[in-house]
Structure formats: C-alpha cells, structure tokens
Amino acid sequence: MIQLPLSKLSNVGTSIFSQMTQLANENEAINLSQGFPDFMPDPELLNYSDHFIKKGFNQYAPMGGMISLKEEIAKKIECAHQAVYHPDTEITVTAGGTQAIFTAIASFVKRDDEVIIFEPAYDCYEPTVELFGGIVKRFEMKAPDYEIDWNSVRNLVTDKTRMIIINNPNNPAGKILKENDFRELVSIVKDTSILILSDEVYENIVFDGRQHISICKYPELKERSLLVASFGKLFQVTGWKTGYCAAPENLTAEFRKVHQFNVFSVNTPIQLALAEYMKNPDHYNNLNAFFQEKRDFLRQGLSSTSFEMLDCEGTYFQALKYDKISDQSDIDFARELTITHKVASVPFSSFYKNKRNEHVIRLCFAKKQETLEKAIDNLCKI
Ligand code: GLN
C-alpha cells in the first residue's frame, strides 16, 4: 500500500458546532449549541430574493460584489461610525464572515509570521493561520469577566507580528471592547506594520444601551484594518452565507487577489435582495432590542437555578458557569446535558488551545420563544 500524505490540517477535528449539533439531533435535544436562529427571516427579505431570482439575476456577480450592495454597506458604516469606505474599491462582498476571515489571513500571513489572537477564540482563526505557515500567539481571557490585560498583549508583540485578530463583540464570551481597549491597541500598533483583522459579525447585537465601537472609528487603526461583518447575523439568514470585508484600497486590492481564486464572487440574487432590504435602516437598527429581550427571557428563566450567568454585553450567546452543579469537565457536562437533559450547548474549553476548563458552557438564545421556554424548563429540572 502506498502511503498517501495527510492534509495540512490532519491534527484538526470536526468543528465543535457541527459536533454538538449532530449530538443534539441524535438525542432529539433542543439545540442551543450552534449559533443560528431557528425562526424565519423577515418575509420582505424573502420576497426580494424570490423577485431577483425570478427576474433573471442568476449569473456571476462582479468579483468584488454588486455595486448596489456595496453602496448600502458603505452608507451603513458611515452612518454608524462616521468612517468612509469607497464602495467600489474598499468593500468586498464575501461568502460569509468565515470566508472573509480566511481570505484576509491567506492574503497577508506568510510562513513564520506571528498572529496574536484572544481566547476564548472563534474556531477558524488558528487553523487558518497555521494553514499558511503562520504562528499563533495567544492571550487568554479568563472567566468570569474576560478582561484583556494589554501589558501581556504588548509582550506578545515581536518583529514578526504580522496581524492581530480581534473579535468584537466576542463569541463566545459576549464581551465588547471599550474605548480604553482601543487606546491600548492604538499604542501597541503605532509605528509598526501590524495589520488588524477585526471580526465584528455581532456588531448590531449589543445590549443595555451599550454602543458597539468599530475598529474603523479610529483612523490610525482603520488604515491598517480589515473589518469583517456578516449578513447572516444581521438579518438572521446564516444559511445565505454572505458577509463582507471593508478595508482601505491598498489592503482591499491584495485581499481581492486571493478572493478571486477562493470564491471569485458571491450569490448574485441574494446580494441584490440584501441591497434592497438594507435601504431601510430599521431592518437592523432594532436588533439590539429584539435580542436583548431573548437574552433577558433566558436569564430570567434560569435565575432560580444554580447556574451562574456571566455578563452578556452582546452576541447571540449567554455563558453559564455550572460549578455549583457539577465538577465534570465542560465537555462531559455539555454531553450529559444534551443526552440526559436534552439541551445542547457548547463547552468553552473548545475555544481555548489548552482546553482551559473553567466549568463554563455557551447557550445560543437566538431562538424562538417556545424553544427557549422548553430549554428553560429542562434546565430548571437539574
Ligand atoms: N458562528 C456560529 C457559532 O458560533 C456557528 C458557525 C459554524 O457552525 N461554523 O455557533
């Protein structure tokens, strides 16, 4: 038998989101693991996609995206953050946030380049960096408040640091970055050529009157940043796999050199539908209140249990500390919760390289009222 080579990611398993969703399905459990809504998107948006498909917009879009959509994206960013991106040369429509992140890393990270990430970290950053020969340096944020000690981050910076990846609001911890975090970041990258990849897919889901601060608010950061966002999270259509990357022209030009060979272009009728729908800012300006109600319903429902609810400033996710209930590892606890109590979650250790176990699990509350009610019922019986 000839020995065929393994892939470059042979040491990586199936993503925790797929694993937990599969376990939920096998056990007929309520799936609060993977972050996707279980309710219908707005019928108005669905009408637009139907319209553009039937009107015959079914061939390739321009490589960088449909201009009508890029114009709406530029308007949205300018209105929210007073930052200007040129629709044609500084915005690229992507097949979701993950593809934008992949392409950004593929475009700029070379062998032996160092990339700083913050853990708990979304699962695609590290494998993508390693696929291109980069080396991940990590700062671990810890329960219960997941604060960043910027002096430690500063110590991770070397001559080889190519990129810093931030995720704001953070999945899974639900933390958002504040003014002082950005001031520290500005001082760290000053006089360096470090790029910033800013994953802001939950930008419109922040709570309790807080403001999402985008990387593009700071000119000295904007000029070196690739800002990634997602329509899946903005309009509750995660299966449409559409998002975008906004970056200065010089970075966008390099990004597109990879993008053209990665996906070339993105679903035409869906881009047109999104553009039409975005013309009314109410379609995204009310998301904070909509999801805050779901967060509060879940928190209220669990308030009499022994779960400790950690702060949730934004995202689809509530973190629960369960150390008063069990001393199992979070992986075992999440499995048992799915199999015995029929509620699927994601263990936090899967967001850390060293599988840091702080007895914390993540629940997705982007679900119908009845789904949340059933999950609360089951969790209250523990
Ligand atoms: N972003 C979603 C989550 O965090 C899932 C994405 C995925 O399954 N790859 O759960």
UniProtKB/TrEMBL annotation:
<dbReference type="InterPro" id="IPR004839">
    <property type="entry name" value="Aminotransferase_I/II_large"/>
</dbReference>
<feature type="domain" description="Aminotransferase class I/classII large">
    <location>
        <begin position="29"/>
        <end position="378"/>
    </location>
</feature>
<dbReference type="InterPro" id="IPR051326">
    <property type="entry name" value="Kynurenine-oxoglutarate_AT"/>
</dbReference>
<dbReference type="InterPro" id="IPR015424">
    <property type="entry name" value="PyrdxlP-dep_Trfase"/>
</dbReference>
<protein>
    <submittedName>
        <fullName>Methionine aminotransferase</fullName>
    </submittedName>
</protein>
<dbReference type="Pfam" id="PF00155">
    <property type="entry name" value="Aminotran_1_2"/>
</dbReference>
<dbReference type="GO" id="GO:0008483">
    <property type="term" value="F:transaminase activity"/>
</dbReference>
<dbReference type="InterPro" id="IPR015421">
    <property type="entry name" value="PyrdxlP-dep_Trfase_major"/>
</dbReference>
<keyword id="KW-0032">Aminotransferase</keyword>
<dbReference type="InterPro" id="IPR015422">
    <property type="entry name" value="PyrdxlP-dep_Trfase_small"/>
</dbReference>
<keyword id="KW-0808">Transferase</keyword>
<keyword id="KW-0663">Pyridoxal phosphate</keyword>
